[in-house]
Amino acid sequence: MFRAVQKADAAVLLGGSLSVLALSSWWLRRLRPKQHPLDLHEGDCSCCTQAGSTKLCERGVPGRLHYNYTPCSEGVVPVTCKDDGKPIRVLFIHGMWHGSWFWRRLQDMLAAAGFGSFALHLRSGRSQRTRSHLDDIEGTLEDLAKLHGESHIVVVGHSQGGILSQYLVRDASAVAERFAGAVFAGTVPASQFWELVKMMPVAMQLVKDMEIISIFHGLGLVGTAYYQLTGSLWSSWCMRRIFFLPSGPQNTTVTAGGMDEYVQRTVMEARADGLPTYAHYFDRAHSFAKINRKPVLILAAERDIIYPPPTMNPIFLKQFPKADCIVAKGQAHCFADAGWEDSFGQALVNWLSQHFKP
Fold first, then answer.
1. What CATH number belongs to 1-358?
2. pTM
3. Which residue, 76, 81, 118, 239, is most buried by CB atoms nearer than 10 A?
């Protein structure tokens, strides 16, 4: 009897949350402006050092994103393509509530291994649709080639950035020939509605695993409505619960200021748009024939409660049958827990070196 009541409560909570999600998405997007007045960024990103680029960003010109460029470390020989000698560089695309700052430490690791990298800072408008994100990314890629020289690009996308990465390698036209490979980290396969239905048991388990306080701290009724209204996370408790391991040191070395800075950036400052995360289920059938001819890595977090590897990886392998799969041990959704340098950072460096170093 008790188990039946638990299942019924979980079903009611899940159904209520999805209802609020649908209604608030539809209604509140009509109340909010289409673009936040401030497109928050680090303030010291590479493009702000280029003459005129800051003004373009402030005006919201499509195809002009803030980004951070980290070249190879001094004295390190850049990894190049054996066919034409152009450098192999990494393009980082962050997820919701994050920005180019999220990749700074990882960019330094790649620089020491011979891989220059670009970390984009996506716009934060509440109605930023998938196509507008892709227009921004493709336009910025064209500018990067002019400013920093042409290169072959390995796309690395995390969470919602992983969904955008899948669209990018599938749909990009002007820059498609420059993609050398792709890494989808802590994300969901770009799927259709039936895949969403099959993943409902995962959502049910998530509701069951999270404490009842989550109703008021993020993924439940109040938190979902708050996110849809403001674009923000409800609290730092929610951020820690869904992004980090529930136990262990409450700190991170991803940011120079540790967990305090992480909370400041993701909870206090960030604005997000989850439309691409919802919309891809209703897209047309996906075909990844072009990128499937190149190296692909599915990089999952062992303790990810949002996109757990046992559920996501089999679906990924249907779409990317030749992909490599790595599960980062002891990491939650954001790969920012203690030991991330080895289980996530070094794993990525090793994979890139294996596939692109001569």
1. 3.40.50.1820
2. 0.83
3. 118
pLDDT tens digit string along 174-186? 777 889 999 999 9
Among 198, 196, 146, CA closest to 175: 146
Q: Which residues pair with 3 in a beta bridge?
A: none
Range of 65-74, 112-121, 125-134, 263-272 with top mean pLDDT: 112-121
> Quick one: which of 329, 158, 333 has its CA closest to 244?
333
Looking at residue 87, what DSSP letter applies?
B
- pLDDT value of residue 292: 87
Residue with tokens 């390190």: 76
**Helix, strand, coil content of the chain in percent (nearest 5):** 50, 10, 40
Question: Which 3 state secondary structure label does DSSP give 45?
Answer: coil
Q: Which residues of 267-280 are buried (b: 16+ CB within 10 A; e: fewer)?
A: beebbbbbbbbeeb
Burial 30-50 (b: 16+ CB within 10 A, else e): eeeeebbeebebbeebbbeee
Distance between CA atoms of residues 255 and 101, nearest Å:
8
